[in-house]
Amino acid sequence: MSQNSPYQQLQNQLEQVVEELEITPSVFQILKEPKHVVRISIPLQRDDGTVETYTGYRSLHSDLLGPGKGGIRFHPNVNEDEVMALSVWMTMKTAILKLPFGGAKGGIQVDPNDLSKRELQELSRQYIRMLEHVIGPQKDIPAPDVNTNGRIMGWMLDEFTRLRGRNVPGFITGKPPVIGGSEGRVEATGRGVVVTILRALEKMDMEKKGAKVAIQGFGNVGSVTAKRLNEEGLKVVAVADVNGMLYDEEGIDVLELCEYVEENGSIEGFQNQELKPSDGIFETDCDIFIPAALENVITSETAPKLKASIVAEAANGPTTGDGDHILKERDIFVIPDILCNSGGVMVSAFEWMQNDSHDHWEKDFVVQRLDKDLSEAFREVYKISQEKNIAMRKAAYQVAVNRLSDAMYERGWVEG
């Protein structure tokens, strides 16, 4: 494993947190490796009769606090190191939020745009068939992630139901509501990003009305975040995707942009505006910068260019170690990914609870509880950061590792 791999960097981070908390090194020994990582080879008969093989993964990092929880992504760059790292982040998120879950993640190395609808459904079902022995509502609960959605979750639920011979809605979350999904799940991650931004503005005594926002990435999370911030009176002045950047000092018409992207799949061509280069987003004059796309975009090269007071990490792992160091030196307030984008797993937990009790919560109740529980988690992390004079990222990891350490002690895994 490369010393610069995401998973190796996470291991180093966890070891440092355990040392700083002055708890037994045994905690790090337990957290440093997943409970298991399954690698599968999935044969798929294509529509033309040929057979192609795709590589899939499922990493269960921890089930210390409950069954594993984590999404399934379909992307050409999915690999074992990435899936392992993402499963650790899920363990940290669920611990911070006090959810009855551990951390997991999975994926298939594929570009779903290259598949027909039939091929995509068959690949999704094959993935479940080959992993049926390690997943389930009390073992490891999948959910949507990059390039997967409620429709794919429905196919996977149907396959798992066939294998078990009975309906098991709590096996997977992110389903359409008609088959047991929760109201508010699709926009949950974006809503959570906004909740943490509003709490940060309060703590920093910054006025939200008219605060300028730049968003890198305009998929589900970026677009929902933009709409919600717009409703709260903030002003989205810049949006970037792979094709370029839109900029309007007076504020972009977010609702119209969201409708346009829904129909066209990109910001390109919106209102016939000429796009600026995508990397210009890092130099945008704004109060809040939101990376909502890829990993490792705030680096030693881009971090010095940022003009924002707040960075809200809507994506997983958007900041490199060097980039994070520069943000700290520049005194930029960072809402770390394991807190900022955890709204999705929180509403997934709500969905699992509803399935378990055969209940269905109204959307207003889901939204209110998301706001309450995530605000509480933010305040706990912020309190630690202030008491110890440490960055929010370090405080978030300390909250998570402390909770995991306490659970290990109570289970008899480690000595106090």
Automatic annotation (TrEMBL):
Please verify whether the record's keywords include ATP-binding. no
Annotated residues that bind NAD(+) are located at: 189, 220
Q: Where is this site: Important for catalysis?
A: 145
Q: Where is the active site?
A: 105 (proton donor)
Q: Which keywords does this Swiss-Prot/TrEMBL entry list?
A: NAD, Nucleotide-binding, Oxidoreductase
- Glutamate/phenylalanine/leucine/valine/L-tryptophan dehydrogenase C-terminal domain boundaries: 182-412
Q: Which Gene3D superfamilies match?
A: Leucine Dehydrogenase, chain A, domain 1, NAD(P)-binding Rossmann-like Domain
Gene Ontology biological process terms, A to Z: L-glutamate catabolic process
Query: Which positions bind substrate?
Result: 69, 93, 348
Q: Which InterPro entries match?
A: Aminoacid_DH-like_N_sf (IPR046346), Glu/Leu/Phe/Val/Trp_DH (IPR006095), Glu/Leu/Phe/Val/Trp_DH_C (IPR006096), Glu/Leu/Phe/Val/Trp_DH_dimer (IPR006097), Glu/Leu/Phe/Val_DH_AS (IPR033524), Glu_DH (IPR014362), NAD(P)-bd_dom_sf (IPR036291), NAD_bind_Glu_DH (IPR033922)
GO molecular function annotations of the record: glutamate dehydrogenase (NAD+) activity; nucleotide binding
> Which family is this protein grouped under?
Belongs to the Glu/Leu/Phe/Val dehydrogenases family.
Q: What is this protein called?
A: Glutamate dehydrogenase
